Each structure stands twice: as C-alpha cells, then as structure tokens.
Structures
1.
Amino acid sequence: MNENHVLKTYQLAQERYAELGVDTETALAKLAAISISLHCWQGDDVLGFEDPERGLGGGIMATGNYPGRARTPDELRADLDQVYSLLPGDHRLNLHAIYLDTDSKVPRDQIQPEHFTRWVDWAKANRHGLDFNQSCFSHELAEDGLTLAHPDPAVREFWIEHSIAARQVGAYFGRELGTPAVTNLWIPDGIKDTPVDRKGPRERLLAALDRVFAPEIDPAYNLDAVECKLFGIGSESYVVGSHEFYMGYAVSRQKLLTLDAGHFHPTETIADKIS
C-alpha cells in the first residue's frame, strides 16, 4: 500500500469533513481512547476449544468451515495479534467459556480461573483487557433449547453452576489485568411453536438468575450483564429472555444490559432500544 496515496486521500477527506464542521483529528483522538472488545468467536465461528468437533447449537448460524480458521488457542491468539496490530489504541477480547486453554477435558460447570491463565498471560503481555461470557449452547444439556429456564431442576442446576463459575473467571480477569471484566450472560432458551405457558419459563429464569448473581463480587473486578433477544432459529415463537424481561431484570437488580444488534430483526431494530 502506497503511504502517500493514503495520506493524500485522508487530507482530502479531512478537508471535506472540515466543510461540515467536523475536526477529524479530534474525532480520531476520541476514537483512540475507546477500547473495542473483540469477539473471540470471530476467529473460528463459535466452535471453541472444549469440543471443536461438536456441532453448533442454540440457533447460532455459523459454519466454522471457512479456510484458515483458528484450530487452537495459539492460532487464535496469533490471528488476534494480527487484528490488533491494525487497530490503533488498546483494546479488549471478549472471551467465551468454551475457549478455555487447558490440556484436559473440563465439564462446563467446573471451569476455573486456572483454565484461562494462558489467556491472561497473553493479555498482560499485549496490554489487553478481557471480558467473559457463559457458554449456554452447543452442549448435550442444551439440545432441547432450554438451559436456565429448563423444567428439569437438574439441568437448570448445571447451568446455574456454570454461570456462577463463569463470574469467578471474570473476576479473575479483572484482578489480574487491573480492569473490570464484563461477564455477559446470554441463553438460547426459547420455543419454536407458540407455547401454552409463557410465564412459567420466565419465573424459572428469574429464580435461576438470582441464584447466579447471589455470590457477591467486587465490581472493580467483574461487572455482570444480561443479554436479551427477540427471536432465534428454533425459537421463532417465544424467547424466555426477551427485551422486556431483561430490561426489567437489569433495572431491578442493577445489572448491565447488553443489546445485540442482530437480536432484533426482522420486526424490531436496536435503534429503537438505544434511542
């Protein structure tokens, strides 16, 4: 790439924006101060390293079949290094539980900080912050589309324990890196056909969430967020964690609310939620 051509193009854009009253240098300085939390799954289409051969679940529409996808944590970190080298400023990585870096098989409800130490070492070396997510999908106990709202208490308990463990991993990130991790909880729970009972699953989810967030964690280390959805593949008629449900939960429990731009099509847009 010819650097002179890039600079000339920028200077032209700078002049055009100045005519509109926009100072591009000020805008770039503000942008450089904002940290982007890059999704880890953009490197391999949400396969992760717990069981990469397992098919995706939870209505996630990604194939993982594109050439050159990361197959190991080291390959993913190398790909991320390349991405961050092209982004001015200091940025973060939004890591999922299924991206643990360990030499042994770990049940999802038993993940520990020790299974993510290599990620922390990498983040320290590169001045990155880390955020975290529970992974309530692509698992034999999520195949029927329900996790924290499942009618079977044993299944619910498994996902409650997984979610509690994930919060401790997030707190570990925050302590080690000196910047609080946002631990974001999204579940795929929903039903394809119109359900007879809409209230029951939400009552179970409410009780499960209160269990998950019961252990107190210093917000200097971990910030909890919940994520809503309008509909999903396989849950077209009913999603337990709707926008209305999580908005009420976030306000009443003082949690962060995550808005996913892809979770509101085709009949709603995220712009209405933000504005």
2.
Amino acid sequence: MRELPAGLVRLVARQHGVVTTAQCVAHGVDRVRVHRLVRSGWWRRLHPGVHVTYTGELSWRTRAAAALLHAGAGAALSHESAAVLHGFTSRLPRVITVVVPWERHPVARPGMVVRRRRRAIRTTVRELPVTDQPTTVLDLVARSRSDDDALGWVSAAVRAGTRPADLRRLAAAQSRVGRRRLLGEVLDLVEEGAESPLEARYHRDVERRHGLPRSARQGWEQLADGWIRSDCRYVGRGVRVELDGQLGHPGGRTSTDTWRDNAVALTHDEVTLRYRWDHVAVHPCRTAQQVAAALHRRGWTGTPRACSPGCAVR
C-alpha cells in the first residue's frame, strides 16, 4: 500500500479495505498492476472488478463494502445489513443485503442478495451507504416471520433513536407497506412503553385481555443503595412485575434478584412477581389470575374478566 498513490490509499481506507479496478485506474494504477497484485497474493478478487487489499479473514464491513461496490451506483445496504449499522442489532447477518434503483439489474454474487427498489431514502453510516432508519424498519417489519419479530425490530429501532412519528409518516406516504396494520399495532405498543416483545405480550395478553389495571412501565426509582428499574409497577397497590425474556435460566434466581426484591420490600412494602416467556406467551390466563390475586390482597377492588370460555380467570 505504501507504493500506491496517496489518494487511492485514503479511498481504500474509507471503503474498509476494498477497491475496484476502475477506481485504481482513475488514480493512476493500471489494470496490469492490479492483476499483478492479485496474482501475487497481496490482493484478492472478491467480486468481478472488486478487490480486497489485505490478507487474512475478511471483516463484515469489508464484505459489505465489497457488495456495495459490486452492486454499483445507487446501491445501499438494507434490511438486516442496514440494521447492524443503525445499531438495531449486533448480530452480523451472514448474507449481505443491498438495495439498488429499480432500473438497475446487477447480478447477485455468493454471500449477497440484491433487491430492486423504486424509492428508498438513503443515508451514510461509517462510510457505508444504507437505507435510513425508518425505511430499514419498514423493510424489517414487512419481512418479519411473526408479530414478536416485528415488535422486536421496532423496539430496537426506537431504542436506537428512531422516532415512532417518523415511522408513521413514512408508512402513510407509501401506497404499499408490507404488514401495515401490524406496524400500526406495534407502534401503539411501543408508544405505550413496551420495550420488548415480552412486555408487549404482558400488556396485551395478561393485562388488557383480562381487565387488570394498567401498570406503569420501565420506571427508574431510587432505593437506599442505588437506582433500580422495574418492568411493570402497579403504583399505589404494592405490586410490581419483572419480566425475564430468557426461555430458560439454568442458574435460577440470581443473588442480584434477591437483593433487589428485598430492597423493594423494605422501602415500599411491595411484592415482586417474576415471569418468563412461558408464563406470558403460553399461560397468560394463569399469570393474569396470579397478578389479580396479588392486587386483591393489596386492596384492588376491581374484577378481572375471562378472555375466553376456558380462561383460568373467574
């Protein structure tokens, strides 16, 4: 790299170690020299006319940059690939997804998917062109396998700074939006405070469908030895609910859980109920029955309702 023109070296750095033959020629490095670098093993050809300028294992961003250069003008990372750069997820997708203008037809290479789009709002993150946050969310919701997956993506996006109002505005401006109704329902839950699929299920399937009072969500409060965060708290009724999204917890109840519950009991005289995915997603009626019993013991005079003929709530 030291013998290459300084401008080309800077370009390669911005492109995460990737460069095209055309870019080399534009910077005064002819095709013969590019071929020599590849043949000698200093460079590697990843796609036709797209070369990696370092040896060793390829980073995910190098693969993403190479896919974009192969896809050509107007290409941008989209879907799960864009989600990584926007901070929606830390899971790196094995296949790089790019979107290109509708009139272009680049051929996908192994390890990448090319989608054509008549309209996509683009931005740049870490030198890589990507669909903007609202567009990325709508793409992910449209391809979600379940309501929980869709809620997970929207929740992650909102935590990363995406504004629900921007999502609603973009959806309203487009005539075709995949799973539009689901998107609206998910945004309603997120705006009500749900930050995970489990919290949304608790609000919808345990509280709302069984006529339980609405809990306050995601509250921070100070105890004698520090601050704690509660998933759901029935303010003034002495009951709080903690939700654990893990399907299983081999270690069982942790010492931190015990210290926290004891601190809550001493400070507020509150009982803490803990539920996992199975309790909320598979047995919401039994969970509602238990929450109602705890609330009644603390003075709630309301009456829960059965959600179906076979409901455990009576």
3.
Amino acid sequence: MTARAPRKAPVGRPRQASLLRIVAQGLVPATSAPDVAEAVRRQLAVQGQQVSAVPHALISRTTGTQMADVERAFAHGRLVRSWPMHGTVHITTAEDHHWLREALAHRYESAMTTGASRWGVTQADVDRAGQSALALIAEEGPLPRARLISAWEEAGLLAPGGGTASSQVGSGRRRHLIVRLHWQGVLVQGPRADNEHLVVDARALPGSETGPGGSGGSARGSDGHRAALAEIARRYATSHGPVTAADLARWTTLPVGQAAQALEDAVEMTNAADYAAGEPCAAVRALVPLTRARMGEGPRGALAVMGAAGSASSARERATTVYLRADLPDLLAANSEDAERTLFLASFDELHVGYKDRGCLTDEAGERLICPGANGMFRPLLVDRGRVVAVRPVGAGLVWASGARRSARLERDVERAVRRVEERLAR
C-alpha cells in the first residue's frame, strides 16, 4: 500500500487521540489483521456479550474477511467465548484463554463467593455440574445451553421452573453454575449455531503454562503472574493506545497502581534489545515497541512523545502518562485519510467500550445516544473523522448525533459504510 502524506492542518487533541486509537485498533488497512483470529490475538480480548455483534466487530478489523470466516474460526477452535476478565463475556483465541483467565481470576473471587451464597450453590454442586457437562459433551459433542441446563435438571442440580420466586432462584443458580465453570476453566464456548455459541470442554485448550508466565503459570502469587500482567498491558496498549493506567484498570478491573506497573513493565519488555528477536511473525502479530507520551493541554494540544527511557515513577506522572505503540504517530501521519473515513462499528465495539475515558470519541450526549438506558446495552455506531456522528439501532434506521454536521458527503459516506459491512456479513 502506498503511504499517504499527512495533512498539513493540525489535528485538535480530542480528534487526534481518537484517530490514533482508530489506527491502533486495526480499523485502517495498514493495521488490519490478515484473519479474524489474528484480529482477536492482537486485541487479546474482544467484547462478546452480544453474539450477533461479534462478527461485525471482527470483520471491521480485517481486510476481505466475511461472515463465513468468523464461523470457521469458532468451528475450528481458533476462537472461544468465555468470562476471562471484567466479569463480562469476551472472545479470545484458544491459546490465550487459560493464561488470561488465570491471571485475572482473583479479581472475581469475591463475586463468585457472593453468588454461591445467594443462590445456595456449594462447591460439590459445581463439581457435579462440571462432571455432568463433560460427560455429556464427550457423548454428544458441543452443547446448546438449553441441553446443558436440561441435563442439570435431570441430575437434580436445578429444579424445573415453578413460581416467580423459584424461577428467580433457578435462573440465578443456572447462571452461577455456567459462569463458575467457565471461570474455573472447565467449560468454554466455541462453535456458533442458531445465534449462540455451543459449550465445549475447556480442558482441551492450551494450558496456562503455554502463556507468558511459562511454567510459572499466570495466577496471582505464581512466579509468572507479573509477566502475564505485562503481556496483558502490552497487547492492550498496542491495540488500544493511546491509553492511561486508568483505561487499563477499567478494561481488566486491576487496581490502577497495578495497571500502571504492568504498563511500565510492558514498555521495558518491548524495548529490550532482544525483544521479538527471531520471531518470524513479529510484524503480523504487532510485536512492536511501546512508548510513553503526554497529551498537551487545551483543545489544540498535541501528543508529546516522551520515549521509553526512564519510567513514570510518581503517581501524578502515571496518571497523566499515555502509552502507545512507538510507531503509532507515524502510522497515523501516513494513513490519516483512512483513519478519518466513515466507519460503521458494532454494538460493544472496543473503540468505544475499551476505555475509561471516551471523550475523544464522543460527548455526554453521544454516550446517551449510544446507550440510552444507561443499562450496559450499546447500539452500533457510525464514526466519521474520529467522532461519533450517528447510531443505528438493530432493526431501525439511523439516529443522528445532535452535534453531527450533516451534509450530502456525510450521508453518502454513512450509507456506503453500512452497506459495505452488511454485504460482508451476508457472505
């Protein structure tokens, strides 16, 4: 691809940060992934709670892929769906599932204990449910959720639905057992069928010892835990930057101080002399150095790269330091037209939900437009020149943002962006 020259006019701070993130996210051809599994690997984890939105998010970060490619990636076991972090469903590669899950499992121990107490679930119940599920999977193959639940009812682990109170308890027990068995690494979701992911045996996936912590594992207290957190930070900063420690903390639920240390470790790791040495897929897997920077004050404040030397030592420095791949400013300069083009992105897209500070992408009115009920249910969005200009609720037409400067050009580009995505999802 021929690099485009950067525009001469300066880009204001909010829009510059958004355009940098668009490039880092793989939403321009220069940084897009060769296939959907690699798109997920670069991001480490992609929001997956709305099953129908996942293919949209993945093809947006690849060139030339279609719905059939997404189906194959799950069917062949390259991608899986689970609750590896943030207490939320995410998509990961099969290779990353167990070490990522173990590295962050301690963040949800309290929630699991509370849920078990609330719904009257004992560890013996969990063990029986796991054994029942694994036996059924061995006999029948990947299971729809309804089949798994019926098996648990037959085993006496769940009572058939009755009145309102019992239905609530039954629903709570069902969800707790399913999430708990994913959290413990017993079950995971794989192949897609009828707009759901079928449940499979997670024990067949690569173990945590194959991750960044090596034989030391990745769980808290293990020898490999710090290395695992550094790898989480590396992939997040590479695929989402510029980001702060607060952004990473929100993405993972790690404490801000621990997130800051992980980012510092990632900078040190990626700037080591032997980093990615001998790795034949370094470019494909975006194994690039990270750097620190600061965003200038005011609406026209520009990104000021600080470099990788030293460290952000004080709490104040860490709070104001942003982390990004070192080549990101040059990538934006060479691909600014692609970064500014109109994008049609999925519900729960990482460009929006992957950060604590989303002010560079939209304002408070835009946030209400994307998530009108403030209930965690997000709408597909249209982004133009780095800013949200509209949303497109499923089954409905466009709803324009109040600040969008509508024009014949914008309306044409929005229509084209939607049509391109819909055509790819139909194949």
4.
Amino acid sequence: MKIVFLGTPDLATPFLEALTNEPGFEVVAVVTQPDRPVGRKQILTPSPVKELAVSKNLQILQPEKLRDEEVQKQLAEIQADIFVVVAYGLIIPQKVLSLPRLGCLNVHPSLLPKYRGPSPIQSAIMNGDAESGISIMLLDKGMDTGPVLAQEKFLLALDESQISLTEKTKQLGPELLIETIKKYAAGEIKPILQDDTQAVICKILNRESGHIDWSHSAKEIDRLVRALQPWPGCWTTFDHNGKNLRLKILKTKIEEEKLVILEVQPEGRSSMSYEEFERGYGKVKME
C-alpha cells in the first residue's frame, strides 16, 4: 500500500516510524512544514518529522502551502492509496484530500466530536476531564468534522500533564492507526458520522493563553499549569524594586485544597524552586 505521510512535530514521529516498519506498507513521500527559525539565535531548524524522514531516506516535500499547483501535481503523480495526517499544522485543500484512492486518514488526540480543533490535549487537562482518547477519522473540508473510523479511550491521571498525555498518544496511537488502515482498506470498517450537536471546539493557544488569572480556583490554575507546560507555558507578573517582571510558573500541586507553587523561572533567570525564589525576591504579589 502506497502511503503519503503528512506531519510536523515530535508527536507525529512514532506514527511515521510505525508506518515505515509495517510489512506491506510503503511510505512513498513525507510532507512536513518548512524549516523554521528556533531559539534566541533563530537557527533554521527542520521539523522532527523531517529529521526522521531524512534518516530513512524518504522523499520529503516542504511546501509553504498545499495550494501550490506544483506541489499538488507532485502529490498526484505519486498515485498514493492513502494519505495519513498527524499534526501536520497547515490547511489541506479539498483538491489534495481527493487525490488518494482511499482518502486521507487523520489521527486526532481526542474522542471526537469532543475537542475539534488545534488544542485537544491541553483542553482535556484544562477542563479536568476524567478520560480522553484517540480518534482515527477521514478528513473532509471541515475542521475535524469527518467520519470516524476508530477510537481508543483511556483514563486520565489526576496529575495528567501535556507531556504525559502526549506520551500516551504516541504510545497507543500508532498501533491503532496500523490496525485501522488495514481494516479500512479491506472494507471491514464502516465510517461513522460525527454528531455535530455534541461537538466541542478547542481554540488556538498562544503565549497570552498562559497568563494566570489568580481569581480562578486553585484546581483550575493547577490544571492550566499542567496543560500548558512546556508550551505556551503559564506566567504571571510581580513587582520587584519598582520593575514589573514576568515569572513563569513551571510546576504546581494541590495540597489540602490549596495551590502550592513548586517551580518557577523569573525573567532572565534559570528555573528554580519556589523556596529559592522567595529567598531571593521575598514574598511577592502576583498579578
């Protein structure tokens, strides 16, 4: 089976690895986002998916957008049986969706129709959900609105974080994807339409999303910190010698219904325990 894989971040790499290792599957091309400037020195850096594809000598396409006619022509010439999409991050136009014989399968880290959109992992944690899961779906012109082929549900830990839930997705998702592709190609799966009346949309996150509102409950703030670490991260501000400084809140916990701050990073400094912070800055009012 000829497969084109579309993905960008680290989350997508175990899925590409599994596809390349599966007998009978041939990943004929990998589409990933262009190299981007990273860090303070803005060093041009390839995506984790590109790095893996290079190590496996796979054909790589890095278009700025998939509406590019030349890119669409290249993809059409491949004559793939199926496209597999995992956190690609760019809009896939209808013309591209219609290219593969079996359509485009997407791996989405939520139990659709809950948490359609770009931040399902973070949303599940922020909202204190008891369970989450992975959906394998067919892409259509909507945002995560296509028919569902398979789902796997799992419980969330009380201290679940963005990092731990991402790891669960990476561990459980590839096997579900492989199994689903085989059954779908064999005609053993009937796509199930999503119930749009039950849809929950999650938003795009940015740095402002992590600005802590201290009027919220201790549990809400703790969930926010766990959901947004490492990116975009949670932060607050405090006054120090007449200067308004930013303070990253890296780790918290709930103890006797109260929020306990464990680890922070003051502006321009390395991370430190909250005890170290208070020794250096004293007790501060956070805003």
